[in-house]
């Protein structure tokens, strides 16, 4: 017979093992190793905290009392898991994308971050959870007492053992449940320890079951016969309870704070649900596989009146199999501890977030801004909450006296926590669900639960028998266990039916009648349409994660380049230790200003507020908004670009049109000038040739004179045609230059003699031939043409008494500059800009020029890479020719 | 009931004709969705069995256990099959329905 | 009585040809080669006929004609206009300005003489 001391020793060793496992898992997770910690298997095993000591021990007891009814508690969760595709998946996605910390947080977040709702859910959860914890404590002490009865030393004292168990569990939960603050930073240590405990309790129950079937009954066949022969050997199930319990367990599976903690908050990967969808039902099946055999064997073997809830322990003990009993004890211990630890964690999060922190923050309001380390305050609040919740469970256990009333507490707690279901499911699938609806529904369901189940269940202490029998104020239709006069129902079915249906009705009606706030509607849309714009978010690590998100958001708004520049500048300003700036207030203010330039001040404020501050709108949604804004910005800038392009095109068209008009006008005017220049000499030629033909008796002088006029005008025509062709070739750029080398002096020599040949030599040309010894490399004939033109112009137009032309040349930095200045009256200033235009003639003198000479000169000089300009301030007309010493192709 | 997986990623127009692959996948997810209702119906059948409290003989508990656990195992098996099929199809096709991609 | 024609033409060779032709017809020919003061010359000379070139230095023949038609006593003066540009637009403008006859250079001598005779005949009839 195992002594109590050995039991305690084993117990302590087991607890130390759990501590070790949790510690190691935390260390591994912190070091980034241990991907298996986030495996679907661990996730599935952690879900099995659903199986508490109540189910570990109580299922057999239940089976011993009412046959297969116990299985409903497992079938409900099975159906929920099987429907994970449209149920749990959405819940998990919402929980993760909204960074939800608890079921209360989820409800509050869905209904516009209403803390009132959160407080309601928290109170409901604590009210339902405390007796449940007490139940676990009871099961541990009961199992202890079984061993203590057999222990001769009699040292066992129930009260102190419960206290130590509660204290130990509190310490464990505090140590591993409040190590870090961030909800999405998962508690690897706790989860791993729980997974281990799940394995232990399953193994223990299977071991006992196998022992019973093959060790006691002698195989499956005899076992089945024995079952059919037993007092529960026939199918006898109340239809109402069967369906109600399946439904109730399904609802509780979703709504229980501890289930929400492991299923949603601790979920590392949405894909794990796919594995858990079949693995967890399998776990439940295995857990319940041997329940009926153990119950039947227990009923056979154990003496009349022994507690069937403890058959799992007492059957092996009675058969002298102490070590199996010890294993079974450890299994039950595991069930109890894992449930208590996770429940305490989940409830403490809710209590600290929704009860303690709002109060603490309101007391801090006087100091202007929240000072000090909020993180420490939150952690302390959670630790104290865990201790308080464990104390509550402990005192509840002591006060209730650990009687049989506790046995039904499991289902009572299920019914209580299930009141959240309408608000939860409505919030996930119905956008029209409002805060008011959720509040009204919860309140109605909660009050009905207390009135019809909790108070009557406590016996005559809180509610008098007369009220139970006749209803309050003798209103029969308000009797707690027969509302509206419907009698004869099972109290549990009665409560669940009325509370949940009226809860749902109240929720729907109040939702339809009320109008949601904008935030509520936004959150509603995000919850209901969570699959439209979200990905499973990564974990968040402190402030650097904030900077990263700010960076991502900023990139989406400003574009990658500017955002990176901005952040880099901030890093340097802050001292540049990391590659992302710390989110200091100054930095955030600058960033907000930067962003408000793109999306407007209000939006920028809200966006930064959401990332840095609360999280009533998730970062993913903000990013989606930012994407849309960026798209719109991009679109509008595209429009701007397009309209700019259009106006540019229009301007170009207008310019082209103006140019065409100008060209057309120039062409008209050029043609008309060419026509004039051609017709004028032809008129003289025709007139005089007709005179000479038709007139008899012309004198010899007359004949000579008229023939000379005809000859001159013919020459003029020829010159004109030559000039026109020359100009046309020059202007079209098709001229081929004949580059040769000579000195400026000899070019000028030839030009002067050519220009003055055959004339009266009236023009005196002054030159300084020494300065003209400049070697030139250019088209010498074309240059000579320019010179001849300039000299003959001086000859023709210089109106001085003794016309003189001074030609001076200079070599100026690789260029030669030649000035031609005469001593005449020059060109009037208003005509100077015109002299190089075609057909421009200054003055009335008709010296036979067509007015193309200077235009041709300008074209030639351009081809030679130089220029010809009018040189003012020289007394008479003066032109300056400038050209490179050596003709270069590039000069063109 | 809003089911996100039928909705295409925003910004992409839903195509009228699905390829055989994605058509199969949708029907598979339909079946997966119907599974819990099917299971609930199966588990409601024992309520129609004759009750032992009456004059007639009730159904032996061993048969009841066999039926319930068979249904249960069947559900688990179906869920397992759907899970693996969904994963295989997800690997087959880039546009995995359950990991909705980032908008655009 | 002697008939007097005023020839306003800046091309000396053309002016000489016309002078030769009309002198032999018995016209007294006065020539002027500048546009700017042409109107004063016309008023001073009070000719029976004016032959006016369009392209004149200083002031175009069109403007001279327009100004001339503004003057009451010169409204009936026959004006023969010559142009070397040969564009139909010029003919329109000249007719609008009140030209008596319009000729494009180069012209034949007979053409010129016929025009002068016709214009003079019309003027003396009216």
Structure characteristics:
heterotrimer, A: 892 residues, mainly alpha, Sodium/glucose cotransporter, Heat Shock Protein 90, five-stranded mixed sheet, rod-shaped, C: 126 residues, Rossmann fold
Coarse morphology of chain B: elongated
Number of helices of chain C: 5
At the third CATH level, what is the topology name of chain C? Answer: Rossmann fold
Low-confidence stretches of chain B: 1-16, 93-104
Count of DSSP H/I helices of chain B: 2
Specify the structural class of chain B. Answer: mainly alpha
Question: What is this entry, summarized?
Answer:
The complex is a heterotrimer of chains A (892), B (104) and C (126). Chain A is mostly helical and 892 residues long.
Describe the overall structure.
Chain A: It is found in: Membrane. The complex is a heterotrimer of chains A (about 900), B (about 100) and C (about 130). By secondary structure, chain A is mainly alpha-helical. Chain A is built from 33 helices and seven strands. Chain A has three domains: about 400 residues, Up-down Bundle (Sodium/glucose cotransporter), CATH 1.20.1730; about 80 residues, no CATH class; about 160 residues, Heat Shock Protein 90, CATH 3.30.565.10. In chain A, a hairpin with a 2-residue loop joins strand 4 and strand 5. In chain A, helix 8 crosses helix 16, helix 11 crosses helix 22 and helix 24 crosses helix 25. Chain A is rod-shaped. Chain B is mostly helical and about 100 residues long. Chain B has a domain of about 60 residues. Chain B contains two helices and no strands. In chain B, helix 1 runs antiparallel to helix 2. The two termini of chain B are about 25 Å apart. Chain C has about 130 residues and is an alpha/beta fold. Chain C has one domain: 3-Layer(aba) Sandwich (Rossmann fold), CATH 3.40.50. Chain C has five helices and five strands, in the order E-H-E-H-E-H-E-H-E-H. The longest helix of chain C is centred in the C-terminal third of the chain and has 17 residues. Chains in contact: A-B, A-C. Chains A and B meet through helix 4, helix 10, helix 11 and helix 13 of A and helix 1 and helix 2 of B.
């Amino acid at each position: 017979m195992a002594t109590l001391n050995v039991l305690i020793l084993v117990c302590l060793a087991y607890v130390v093992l759990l501590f070790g496992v949790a510690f190691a898992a935390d260390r591994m997770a912190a070091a980034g190793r241990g991907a298996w910690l986030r495996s679907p298997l661990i996730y599935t095993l952690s879900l099995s905290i659903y199986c508490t000591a109540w189910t570990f021990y109580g299922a057999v007891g239940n089976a011993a009392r009412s046959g297969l009814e116990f299985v409903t508690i497992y079938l409900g969760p099975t159906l929920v898991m099987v429907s994970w595709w449209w149920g749990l998946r959405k819940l998990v996605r919402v929980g993760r994308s909204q960074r939800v910390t608890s079921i209360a947080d989820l409800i509050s977040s869905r209904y516009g971050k209403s803390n009132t709702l959160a407080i309601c859910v928290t109170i409901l959860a604590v009210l339902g959870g405390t007796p449940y914890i007490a139940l676990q404590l009871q099961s541990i002490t009961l199992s202890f007492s079984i061993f203590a009865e057999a222990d001769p030393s009699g040292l066992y004292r129930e009260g102190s053992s419960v206290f130590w168990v509660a204290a130990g569990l509190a310490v464990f939960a505090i140590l591993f449940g409040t190590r870090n603050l961030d909800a999405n930073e998962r508690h690897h240590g706790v989860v791993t320890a729980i997974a281990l405990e799940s394995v232990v309790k399953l193994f223990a129950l299977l071991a006992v079951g196998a022992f019973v079937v093959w060790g006691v009954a002698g195989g499956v066949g005899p076992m089945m016969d024995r079952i059919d022969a037993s007092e529960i050997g026939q199918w006898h199930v109340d239809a109402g309870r069967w369906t109600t319990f399946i439904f109730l367990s399904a609802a509780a599976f979703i709504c229980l704070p501890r289930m929400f903690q492991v299923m949603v908050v601790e979920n590392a990967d949405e894909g794990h649900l796919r594995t858990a969808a079949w693995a967890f039902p399998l776990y439940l099946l295995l857990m319940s596989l041997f329940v009926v055999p153990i119950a039947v064997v227990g009923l056979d073997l154990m003496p009349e009146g022994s507690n069937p809830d403890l058959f799992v322990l007492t059957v092996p003990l009675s058969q002298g199999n102490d070590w199996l009993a010890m294993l079974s004890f450890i299994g039950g211990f595991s069930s109890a501890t894992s449930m208590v630890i996770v429940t305490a964690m989940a409830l403490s999060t809710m209590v600290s977030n929704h009860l303690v922190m709002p109060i603490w923050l309101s007391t801090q309001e006087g100091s202007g801004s929240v000072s000090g380390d909020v993180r420490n305050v939150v952690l302390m609040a959670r630790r104290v909450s865990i201790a308080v919740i464990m104390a509550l469970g402990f005192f509840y256990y002591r006060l209730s006296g650990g009687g049989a009333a506790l046995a039904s507490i499991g289902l009572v707690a299920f019914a209580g926590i299930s009141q959240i279901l309408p608000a939860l499911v409505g919030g996930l699938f119905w956008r029209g669900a409002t805060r008011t609806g959720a509040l009204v529904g919860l309140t109605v369901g909660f009050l009905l639960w207390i009135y019809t189940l909790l108070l009557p269940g406590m016996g005559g202490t809180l509610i008098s028998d007369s009220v139970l029998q006749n209803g309050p104020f003798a209103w029969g239709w308000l009797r707690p266990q027969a509302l509206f006069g419907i009698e004869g129902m099972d109290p549990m079915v009665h409560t669940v039916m009325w509370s949940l249906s009226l809860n749902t009705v109240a929720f729907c009606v109040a939702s339809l009648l009320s109008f949601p706030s904008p935030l509520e509607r936004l959150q509603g849309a995000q919850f209901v349409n969570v699959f439209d714009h979200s990905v499973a978010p990564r974990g968040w690590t402190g402030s650097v994660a904030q900077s990263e998100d700010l960076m991502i958001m900023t990139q989406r708004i400003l574009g990658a380049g500017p955002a990176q520049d901005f952040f880099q500048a901030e890093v340097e300003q802050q001292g540049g230790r990391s590659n992302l700036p710390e989110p200091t207030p100054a930095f955030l203010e600058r960033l907000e200003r930067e962003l408000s330039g793109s999306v407007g001040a209000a939006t920028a404020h809200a966006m930064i507020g959401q990332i840095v501050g609360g999280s009533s709108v998730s970062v993913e949604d903000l990013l989606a908004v930012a994407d849309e804004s960026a798209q719109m910005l991009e679109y509008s800038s595209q429009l701007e670009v397009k309209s700019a392009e259009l106006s540019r095109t229009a301007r170009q068209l207008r310019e082209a049109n103006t140019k065409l008009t100008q060209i057309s006008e120039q062409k008209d005017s050029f043609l008309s000038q060419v026509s004039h220049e051609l017709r004028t000499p032809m008129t003289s030629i025709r007139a005089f040739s007709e005179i000479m033909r038709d007139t008899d008796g012309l004198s010899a002088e007359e004949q000579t004179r008229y023939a000379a006029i005809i000859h001159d005008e013919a020459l003029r025509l020829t010159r004109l045609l030559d000039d026109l062709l020359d100009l046309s070739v020059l202007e079209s750029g098709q001229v081929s230059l004949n580059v040769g080398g000579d000195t400026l002096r000899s070019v000028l020599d030839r030009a002067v003699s050519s220009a003055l040949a055959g004339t009266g030599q009236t023009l005196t040309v002054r030159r300084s031939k020494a300065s003209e010894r400049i070697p030139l490399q250019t088209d010498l004939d074309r240059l000579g043409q320019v010179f001849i033109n300039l000299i003959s112009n001086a000859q023709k137009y210089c109106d001085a008494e003794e016309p003189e032309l001074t030609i001076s040349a200079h070599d100026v930095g690789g260029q030669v500059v030649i000035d031609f200045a005469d001593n005449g009256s020059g060109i009037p200033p208003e005509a100077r800009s015109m002299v190089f235009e075609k057909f421009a003639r200054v003055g009335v003198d008709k010296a036979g020029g067509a007015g193309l000479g200077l235009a041709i000169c300008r074209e030639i000089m351009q081809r030679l890479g130089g220029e010809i300009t009018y040189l003012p301030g020289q007394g008479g007309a003066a032109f300056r020719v400038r050209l490179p010493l050596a003709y270069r192709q590039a000069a063109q | 009931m809003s089911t996100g997986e039928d909705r295409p990623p925003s910004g992409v127009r839903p195509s009228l004709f699905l390829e055989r692959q994605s058509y199969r996948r949708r029907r598979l997810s339909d079946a997966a969705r119907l599974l819990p209702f099917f299971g609930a119906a199966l588990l409601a059948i024992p309520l129609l069995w004759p009750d032992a409290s009456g004059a007639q003989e009730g159904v032996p508990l061993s048969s009841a256990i066999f039926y319930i656990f068979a249904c249960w195992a069947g559900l688990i098996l179906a869920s397992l099959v759907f899970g693996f099929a969904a994963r295989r199809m997800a690997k087959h096709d880039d546009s995995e329905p359950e990991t909705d991609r980032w908008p655009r | 009585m002697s008939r007097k024609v005023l020839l306003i033409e800046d091309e000396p060779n053309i002016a000489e040809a016309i002078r030769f032709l009309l002198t032999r017809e018995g016209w007294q020919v006065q020539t002027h080669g500048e546009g700017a003061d042409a109107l004063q010359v016309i008023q001073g000379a009070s000719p029976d006929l004016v032959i006016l070139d369009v392209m004149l230095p200083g002031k175009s023949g069109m403007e001279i004609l327009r100004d001339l038609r503004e003057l009451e006593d010169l409204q009936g003066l026959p004006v023969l206009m010559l142009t070397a540009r040969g564009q139909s637009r010029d003919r329109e403008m000249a007719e609008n300005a009140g030209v008596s006859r319009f000729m494009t250079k180069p012209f034949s001598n007979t053409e010129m003489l016929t025009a002068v005779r016709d214009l003079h005949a019309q003027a003396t009839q009216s």
